[in-house]
Amino acid sequence: MPKRVLQGVVVSDKGEKTIVVKVERRFTHPVMKKTVRRSKNYHAHDEANAAHVGQTVFIEECRPYSKTKTWKLVEDQAEAVATAEA
Asked: In a structure prediction context, what are the per-residue pLDDT tens digits for the chain, which is 86 residues long?
């Protein structure tokens, strides 16, 4: 089964080898028929501490690194775009 890849914006890089990424999704409300925006924060593993606040990054599912970290930063951005479009 392929791993999910999400795109979001880094909102915190304070942790050691950890970033917090805000992922926003849009959908049409079933009753109101209005476009609604919902966002969720994901903790992701960043081995090289490469990402900084404000950057748009891709994260993918992985094994649990800790209680809250089950995502990791995708190093090759071009590869992540190809995977997300497929």
From this structure: 899 999 999 999 999 999 999 999 999 999 999 999 999 999 999 999 999 999 999 999 999 999 999 999 998 665 555 555 55
DSSP 31-79: TT--EEEEEEEEEEE-TT----TT-EEEEEE-S-SSSSEEEEE-S-HHH
Q: Which of 40, 42, 43, 48 is nearest to 75 (CA)?
A: 48
pTM exceeds 0.70, yes or no? yes
For 59, the token pair is 């994260």
